[in-house]
């Protein structure tokens, strides 16, 4: 049996009508020798730190940091257990899987992490869909790729996710504990993306707060050449200008 694994139900319905999978099941659509099922985004998530040892539990400690897992642990999201059970059962019946998730890094991770977690041993292919109009679906179905062609996207996505986890879990605990030593309560949340973004916002806010207006001069004249009048702006020499190119000397 060939199993198409999509990222969401709407995507599954769009594909199913082209492969004869018109019978509705609980969490899937089926046809002769083919089944289409779907995730709902990521069905798996990184385990909490305590899964790697009691020393990483709710009582945060500096002496056990950093936590860098040697064997990564994924868990099924609580709200996704029903659909995960459907996919897990179908994978046990399938001879081959066609990954039909979104054509990007996260789409690759959503599908392949399920295949690894469920220990699927059959053949794997990739349906690369850049759009879900009829012509695009037909073209993609006529040119299904070997899974190796997009495996690098999966590895990149896994690396990004693990980097986020290592940075977030370790630095949040470190900064929170150091803040407590300084008498500051609360959690000091640190993230690979959120913290640099926050720094940009704070830097801009400080620039606005500390802004000191400077007088500057623009010299604009109306010139005439061949009886044609036109405005012209004088460009001051660099030594008379500030960093924005404005003349700040009289």
Please provide a brief summary of the model.
The protein has 250 residues and is an alpha/beta fold.
Describe this structure in words.
It is a single chain. By secondary structure, the chain is an alpha/beta fold. It has two domains: 2-157, Rossmann fold (3-Layer(aba) Sandwich), CATH 3.40.50; 216-250, no CATH class. 36% of the residues lie in helices and 18% in strands. The chain has six helices and eleven strands. The strands form three sheets. It has a seven-stranded mixed sheet, with helices on both faces. The protein has a two-stranded antiparallel sheet with strand order 5-6. The protein is flat. It starts with a strand and ends in a 17-residue tail after the last strand. The model has no long low-confidence stretch (mean pLDDT 96). Residues 150-250 form the Topo IA-type catalytic domain. Keywords: Isomerase. Residues 1-133 form the Toprim domain.
Oligomeric description of these chains? single chain
Low-confidence stretches: none
Main β-sheet: number of strands, strand sense, barrel status? 7 strands, mixed
How far is it from the N-terminal to the C-terminal residue, by CA? 83 Å
Give the CATH level 1 class of the largest domain: Alpha Beta
Overall pLDDT confidence: 96
Report the sheet-strand fraction: 15-25%
Whole-number count of domains: 2
Radius of gyration: 29 Å
Structural class: alpha/beta
Proportion of residues in helical segments? 25-40%
Shape assignment: flat
SSE order: EHEEEEEHEHEHEHHEE
Strand order of the largest sheet: 2-3-4-1-7-8-9
CATH architecture of the largest domain: 3-Layer(aba) Sandwich
CATH topology of the largest domain: the name is: Rossmann fold
GO molecular function: DNA binding; DNA topoisomerase type I (single strand cut, ATP-independent) activity
Keywords: Isomerase
Domain Toprim: 1-133
Domain Topo IA-type catalytic: 150-250
């Amino acid at each position: 049996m060939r199993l198409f694994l999509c990222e969401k139900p709407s995507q599954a319905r769009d594909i199913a009508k082209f492969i004869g999978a018109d019978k509705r099941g609980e969490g899937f659509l089926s046809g002769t020798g083919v089944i289409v099922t779907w995730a709902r985004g990521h069905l798996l998530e990184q385990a909490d730190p305590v899964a790697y040892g009691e020393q990483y539990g709710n009582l945060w400690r500096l002496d056990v940091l950093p936590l860098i897992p040697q064997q990564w642990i994924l868990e099924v999201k609580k709200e996704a257990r029903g659909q995960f059970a459907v996919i897990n059962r179908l994978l046990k019946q399938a001879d081959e899987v066609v990954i039909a998730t979104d054509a990007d890094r996260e789409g690759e991770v959503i599908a392949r992490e399920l295949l690894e977690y469920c220990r699927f041993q059959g053949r794997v292919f990739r349906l690369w869909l850049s759009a879900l109009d009829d012509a695009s679906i037909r073209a993609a179905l006529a040119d299904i790729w070997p899974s190796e062609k997009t495996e690098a996207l999966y590895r990149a996505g896994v690396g990004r996710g693990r980097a986020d986890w290592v940075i977030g879990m370790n630095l949040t605990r470190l900064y929170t504990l150091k803040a407590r030593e300084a008498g500051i309560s609360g959690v000091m949340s640190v993230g690979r993306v959120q913290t640099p973004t926050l720094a940009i916002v704070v830097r801009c806010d400080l620039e606005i707060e500390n802004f000191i207006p400077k007088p500057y001069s623009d010299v604009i004249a109306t010139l005439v050449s061949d009886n044609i009048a036109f405005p012209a702006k004088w460009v001051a020499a660099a030594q008379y200008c500030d960093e924005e190119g404005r003349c700040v000397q009289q």
